[in-house]
Amino acid sequence: MKISRPKIYEQIANRLIEQIENGVLKEGERLPSIQKLAKDYGVSNASVREALNALRIIGLVEIKHGYGTFVKQKTPQLFDFISQALTPKRVKEILELREVVELSTAQFTAERRTDAMLTEMELALEDMAQAMRMDKSGEEADLRFHLAIAKASDNELLYELLHNISDLIQQTMKGTRHIYLYNRQKTMERLLEEHVAILTAIQQQNGAMAKHQMARHLAEVRQTLVEHYIMD
């Protein structure tokens, strides 16, 4: 198993998260300038910017151009409840549905996919990797990847089933990625590696392995949400 070393910006983000959690940096407080943080940590300005962008994505800080970066809240807003569409029970139901449907879908796709369909999956993963490099959460590309797998299964009903709940699936994907940004034990690279493993099995037309890798990925998603979100 490959073990990834935390990137410099992740290490900086982790230190700032600890200071926010411990109350060293309080809500509404202005953070030191990028230049000062870079000097204090002995890193580049670019690394500090990446760290602040990661904290902005999960809602811990607010960046006001021309004024600085301010602590927005002590704990991240991992899910958006404004629409009331995503309740704990609904999240659990979505995960259960995905586990029932997507394992077999991955197997069918590995056995039936065409080269053209394979290209669509590869492009989605390239966009996911690009989003990560640009400090974006990348849930749009994540959803496209899973829908491309369903489309390549040669089963219209499976594709339509996932497509009809795609908005809710994307919300859980966004929440999962925000947790990865917030949780110092998980990395976005690890999440990408799980998707690459699924794609590799599909490329090799190994149905059993595709099913196994999809199960492994969805189990990790479930565990991530259980650890940080009340699922009972």
UniProtKB/TrEMBL annotation:
SUPFAM superfamilies: GntR ligand-binding domain-like, Winged helix' DNA-binding domain. InterPro entries: GntR_C, TF_FadR/GntR_C, Tscrpt_reg_HTH_GntR, WH-like_DNA-bd_sf, WH_DNA-bd_sf. One of its GO terms (molecular function) is DNA binding. Pfam families: FCD (PF07729), GntR (PF00392). It comes from the Bacteria. Residues 6-74 form the HTH gntR-type domain. Keywords: DNA-binding, Transcription, Transcription regulation. This is Transcriptional regulator.
